[in-house]
Amino acid sequence: MEAPRDAAEEHQRLNAESFGRDGIDPRGPRFSAAITSVVLAAALLAVPSSSSGSQTVAVVLVVFQTLVFGFATFRGLDAHLYGRIFRSVVAPRLGPPAELEDQAPPRFSQLVGFLFMVVALLGFFFGILWIAQIAIGFALAAALLNAVFNYCLGCEMYLLGARIRART
Amino acid sequence: MNSLWLLVGVVLIAVGFGLWRKWSDGRLREDSTESEVMDSLLSVHSTPGAPEGQQQFDAQTLGILLGSQATLVQFSSAFCQPCRSARLLLANLADDLPGVTFVELDAEGHLDLVQTLHIRRTPTIFLLDSAGNIKKRAVGLPRKSEVVAALADVV
Q1: I need a surface site. Which of A43, A52, B13, B79 has the fewest CB within 10 A?
Q2: Nearest residue on chain A to B4, judged by CA atoms?
Q3: ipTM score of the complex?
């Protein structure tokens, strides 16, 4: 499970330099977004085209992704399942990152993903499949943008939300 | 809805959007804010003697010290990946160039300006001349060479 000790120490030292103890390897969220993309693409494909088809696989995948987003949002990125896989399996093979980044933006994006998953589950629950499809589709687009282009689309929701709140 | 076609559509849209963003992000443009917006900005931050037809930042209202030649104003937010890189780039430029000042504002703390200036995401960067008039705007992480060239035009 654990990364080699010296790599872990190096990581801690870099962390302390730029972000106190909150800095993270920027490759972690991109790796997580790539796995998220695969899970959400599979979930989207598993949604039946009519409500008479079986939804079980799609619902299981969406519930799973909801839990992953939820733990990352409410318990922090240390509790992110894919992030843990990155740190224990991938990061030790890559060597230390060139620079660290703040963990607040990726954590916020997990909240946005979590909300889309909740909408998708409500769609399944009430048998309105197109709502589930649209919600999964948005989350998939955001995850792809993060994985491929390193864009945090969820982060942009924050300012838009603040603008709307200010207007009302 | 057919899920396969939806998946294909989502992937195409995401890749297209990503490529467009990659191309357009951080480019310095002439500020295209409409004149009616300028009026509301000037009434929010009324500045006596402001030149007609140009937007102006009221330095005092914002607590900004304008640079003697030019000022770079960056709007940032709490959940913003490229804001840190933009800050490092612009702060370094301002340090190196005499008469150029760099100011970072929290978008959430200046929502009235965010509305009047049509700021939709962070970082949004404005290049101001010595009088505080908005000359250029960039959305996203700016490119150093472009900022240097634009500063040379203003100074």
Answers
A1: A52
A2: A45
A3: 0.81
